[in-house]
Every structure is written in C-alpha cells, then in structure tokens.
Design brief:
By secondary structure, the protein is mainly alpha-helical. The protein has three helices and no strands. Helices cover 88% and strands 0% of the residues. The chain is rod-shaped and about 185 Å long.
C-alpha cells in the first residue's frame, strides 16, 4: 500500500507540476510581452524627452540672441538719433550764421557802394575847379584799394559768394544726412519688428514644447513604474518558474522513471501486472 500511495502521490505531483508549468508559461509569456513593450516605450519616451529638452534649450538661446540683437539695434538707433540731433543743430547754426553774414556783407557792400558813388561825385566836382597842374591822385574816384590789388567791394562780394556757397552746401549736406538717417531709422525699425515677431513665434513654440515635455515626463514616469512592476514580478516568478535547478522536462523524465520503477517493484511484490 505504501508503494501504491507513493505512486499516486508522484502522479498527483506530476499533474500539479503540469498545471504549474502551464501557469508559469502563461505568466512568463505575458510578463515578457509587458517588459518588452514597456522597455521600448521607455526608450522612445526618453529619446523624446531628450529631443524636447534640446529643442527648448535651442529656442531659449535663440530668443536670448534675438533679444540681445534688439538691444543692440535700440542702442544704435539711440546713438544715431543723438548724433543726428547734434549734426542738425550744427548745420542749422551754420546756415543761420551764413544767412546773417550774407545780410551783413550785403549791407556793408551797399554802404560802401553808396560811399564810393558819393566820392566819385565829389571827385568830379573837384576836377572842375582845380587847376591843370593839380595832383594826379584826384583824377579818379577813390574805391578803397587793397595791397594785393582790387578794391574792398570786390573783396566783400567774394566773401558774400563764400557765405552763399556755405549756406547752400550746408543745406544740401543737412538734407542728405537727414535722408540717410531716415533710411537707417526705417531699416532699423523693420529689422527690430522682424526680430520681435520672431521672438514671439519662438516663445510660443517653446511654450508648446514645454507643455509636450511635461506630458512626456509624466508618461515616462508612469511607463517606467509599469516596467519596474513587470521586472519585479519577473524576479518573483524566477524561483518557481525559471531558476528551479533542473528543467521541467528533466523533472518529468525523472518522475516517470521513478513511477516506472515503483510499478515494477509493486509487480514483483504482488506478482500482478499493474499495466
């Protein structure tokens, strides 16, 4: 009876182990699928996180560079505006001085011409009353002779021309400088507006990427937790389903041999064929 009981127990163990083997196969297969899927997801999410982080960093740098460029444009515009104001003030003062000088010189020329006209009349009158042997000095009206030749009126007329030319050239220079300033101002404002608009686009894109990054990090956290759980469950399965020392097939073979030996021993003891 003891041998029979032993045979029955071995056969029950064989059935139990077969059921356990089926359960292990199912659990290991499901667990491997889970581990593979979660591992792949973690790798993809990690790469996505790194890509988003890199993109956000680049956008942040781009925005900083554009902001610095705008600051430099503002500084250049402020400097050009100050220089334009100073140049305009100098030009307007030069033009005003030239105009005032022209008025003064014109008045001086008029006075001198009047004086010399009267002098000519006086000379003519004196010539009528002088004797024939009068000094030769008084035979022409006095015109204010200069050491290098010419007379004072001619000299003043040259000066008048110089002041007129100074006014004209300064006015032309002022107009040209103003045109250049307005072109620089227009180009600067246009460049600034484009850069400011680009900052707006990049900042909006950065906010979108930051939102994506937050979602990715949350999903990665959950997926990593699921992977960790699957790995922990695999470690729990290993002692009974993987690391049992010998393979399932080897245990089945040994148990069958043991059952067969017990059956043969029982046959000998009872003299009966149990087959």
């Amino acid at each position: 009876k003891m041998i029979k009981d032993l045979i029955v127990r071995l056969m029950e163990e064989a059935n139990e182990e077969a059921e356990h083997k089926g359960w292990c196969d199912t659990e290991l297969t499901t667990n491997k699928q889970t581990r593979d899927q979660k591992t792949e997801s973690v790798e993809q999410l990690t790469a996505q996180k790194e890509d988003l982080t890199s993109t956000i960093a680049q956008l942040t740098q781009d925005i900083a560079d554009l902001s610095q460029a705008i600051k430099e444009l503002d500084a250049a515009m402020a400097e050009a505006t100050a220089e334009r104001a100073q140049a305009k003030e100098r030009n307007e003062q030069t033009i005003a001085d030239a105009k005032a000088a022209q008025v003064a010189v014109t008045q001086a020329i008029a006075i001198l011409k009047d004086f010399y006209a009267k002098s000519a009349q006086a000379t003519a009158l004196a010539q009528q009353t002088l004797a024939e042997d009068a000094p030769e000095t008084f035979d022409k009206p006095y015109q204010g002779l200069l050491p290098e030749g010419g007379n004072v009126v001619d000299f003043l007329e040259v000066i008048l021309t110089d002041f007129s030319r100074l006014e004209s050239e300064t006015s032309a220079a002022e107009a040209e400088q103003q045109d250049q300033f307005e072109k620089f101002s227009f180009d600067t404002e246009k460049d600034r507006a484009l850069k400011d608009n680009e900052i707006g686009h990049k900042d909006a894109k950065r906010k979108d990427k930051e939102s994506d990054l937050a979602s990715t990090e949350e999903e990665l956290k959950l997926t990593q937790a699921q992977l960790d759980k699957a790995l922990a469950y695999y470690e729990k399965l290993k002692p009974t389903c993987v690391d049992s020392g010998i393979t399932y097939e080897e245990r089945v073979r040994r148990r069958e041999e043991e059952i067969q030996s017990l059956q043969e021993a029982l046959k000998i003891l009872t003299g009966t064929d149990l087959a």
